[in-house]
Amino acid sequence: MHHGPREEPPSTDAGEHALAALDAALDAVVSVDARGHVLSANARAGELLGWEPDHVVGGQSAELLGPDLHDDVAGLLADPAPEARRVQREIADHHGRVLWAEASITVTEVGGRRVATVFLRDVSAARRTERRLQVEHRLARVLAAARSTEEIARGILEMLALGLGFDHAEFWLVDAQRASLRLSAAWRRTPGGPFGDAARRLVLGRGEDLAGHAWEVGETVCLEDASTLDNLVRADAIRSEGIRGCAALAIRVGRAVTGVVVLARTGDEPLDAELRQTLKAVAVQLGHFGERRVAERRLAEETVALAAV
Fold it and tell me: What is the reported pTM?
């Protein structure tokens, strides 16, 4: 059978295709030399790090990637037998937004010099989910071992605030007459300030301020921007400290609300649906702890009464 002349494949420039593929990649790709100079970056790198690609190339990796990831890259470039490495590091972009990035780092010889190529992927959402689940698990362990609210209150507030990204955490307790709320414990990322100072002097009724509102409705209340509300007792303090997102968790023991946890933070990060679900789960956990303590007290009282008989 006669075959016609073999058709040659069209000529291609492998280098151009590789560059085009990197530029279209979903991950950010940055190359760095041994002096810490950024040699190249794809479009995604500029988007992820908040820079225009033209401003990235020629810059310093310490500024672009942050000190921790820069040290990882420098260490690998200095290693006589470098092996590819994958790390997770916190990075602040050009606008100050903090994100968690997973970085894969490889080292190759290019034109007689060593070059590190860094593939970056934003894993902030997965990291937040993991951290929130860890908060729930740690809280469950602490509550299982605790004997009283007083011994764990401030530690729990600190754990919730740091784990969930808040700057203020307060525990308000309903008094024995169920007439008012008073501050029982508090944690502040930065001591002092009008928001915290005012809390120590307040006695709240139903519907007053953040804690009183949660007490009145009997469930978790979330506010994306508390600074827009003028009917809060601490409205001036909220605005002066730049507080935005707030949550008030009503702690229910049986049918009654016995306390409220208030969380507040500055910044524009929204209280997303996942975080709201975590806050509701935390409120349920705290309510179950309260119910357990009530049951234990009743058992102790009944035991004393039986012994007396």
Answer: 0.75
